[in-house]
Each structure stands twice: as structure tokens, then as C-alpha cells.
Specification:
This protein is mainly alpha-helical. It contains five helices and two strands. The chain has helices at about 1-30, 35-55, 60-115, 135, 150-165; strands spanning about 120-125, 145. Helix 1 (about 1-30) crosses helix 5 (about 150-165) and helix 2 (about 35-55) packs antiparallel against helix 3. It is rod-shaped. The model has no long low-confidence stretch (mean pLDDT about 85).
Amino acid sequence: MALFFNLIISTIVSCSHYISSPVKQILARLACSGETAEEKLLLSEVSSLRRSLQGVSMADQFAAWAKLQRQINALTQKYQAKASERYKQEQFLRRVCGVVVDAVIWMLTLWYVWCSRGSAVAALPQHLLTPLGSVLAVPSCQPGEISVVVWMACVRSVVSHLRSNFFSKRITAAPLT
């Protein structure tokens, strides 16, 4: 039962790097609040000025039309500056969330490897693993056992290959006819 538990836990820990992407996205959504009240106010002012601009004839009342247009342009620039500032802050928060999640995953992985460095995930008869028995037992398992470290490396390699082969976007050429 302990071997099965080690097998499951080490497989999950090995795949945690690939599971972290949705976690990063969720944390970034929670950290980023979207448009601020000031930005919404600026947008509502711009829309009300545009409605009033539609009621003004450019040919008959050019001075009033130009004044409204300048106000719209000024408020639009303010809004764009606020939105740009918010975007920069959101990008910074996304990077920080990504670094924190990656650091937590690496620390948990290192902790798990340290705590289970002498544990095995599988024990097979020694004759089945004859040429590779000592390599699969690295760092401190008995020959015939597969260590947690080797298992995690194998799982990560297999998941990486599966991910690149099945989930990558391939551009295929149309058949020549």
C-alpha cells in the first residue's frame, strides 16, 4: 500500500509543473480587478459627450462642436493613460503570481524528493530489471526497486513528450492534387 501511495504522490508531484498553468491564470484573475471606478466614470463621460456631439451640427455650430470634440479627446487620452497604467500593474501581478506558483511547486517538489529519497514507488523481481536495476534504484533504493527520483524523471519526460506531440498546434500543408 505504501508503494502505491508513493507512486500516486510522486506522479502528481511530477505533473505539477503542467498543472500550474491554470493555477497561475486563476490567481491572476483574482488579483486583477478589471476597470476601476474612475475608468468607468471616464468612459461614461465620453459616451455622454459623444451623444451630445451627435446633436451638434459641425457646419452650423463649429465652435461648440470643436469644444466637445476636444473634451472627448482629452477624456479619451486620460482613459487610455489609466488603462495603460492598470495593464502594466496587471502584467506585473501576473508575473509575480507566476513566479510565486513556480517557486512553491519547486519547493514542494524538492521537499518531497528529500523526504522520500530512500523510498521506492515499485518493487519488481530483480531479474526483470537486470541491466538497469542499479540505475533505477538511484539514489538509495535496493536493486529491483524503482526510486521516487527516477520515477518522477520518467513521468515528467513522458508527460512532456505527450504534451508536445498531442497538444501542440501543428501546421499541416494541404495535400497536393
